[in-house]
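FAQ: What does the model actually see?

It sees only this:
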Amino acid sequence: MTETSAARHNGDRLLDVVVEILESEGYDAVQLREVARRAQSSLATIYKRYPTRDDLILAALEYWSQRHRYAGITVGGGSEASLYDGLMQIFRTIFEPWESHPEMLAAYFRVRSSPNGQRLFRFGLDLVAPAGLEVLAGVDDEFIANLDAIFSSVIYGLLGRFSAGEIAATDILPVLERTVYWLTLGYESAPPRRPSASIKRRSNSGG
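And it is asked to produce this:
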């Protein structure tokens, strides 16, 4: 088990301190000397594990997310669950902890918009992917691609508005719920699609 994985499972005083600072004082209050003091550690120990302040904050967000946002993420109902219900179960699992921890959401957006943002996004995607694949089993591939583009834009836009102080953390899920409702309603009520020309050509050629 790697050091990061062990920290997620067993707790980590250093990362606990960073999370405490992020939640109570905000992103800019995370200073390495103060973290070292509160964690009863040394700057040398911190730099050995995390070369930069940004790396330390990213690790703390991954650590917190593993325990709160993605803890035990599953999809209930199996094949009987509707597409709407399955997607909303995932979104609630992700966003409800943020409603109680808005400072962590603000820190997440700061990191997501930084050079480390892709790593943080990848971390979350890897944890959500199994449940997402279960929900989207049997769903049209083109619709899945459209969902990805739409949700990425909607969520990033909502996080930006939250970061700018235009909306509260509790405003995000209701917007996502309406978005999921209308998208899935349109998909499920649409008539069956005809195969595209390229699919017809492959079928006729026996490929």
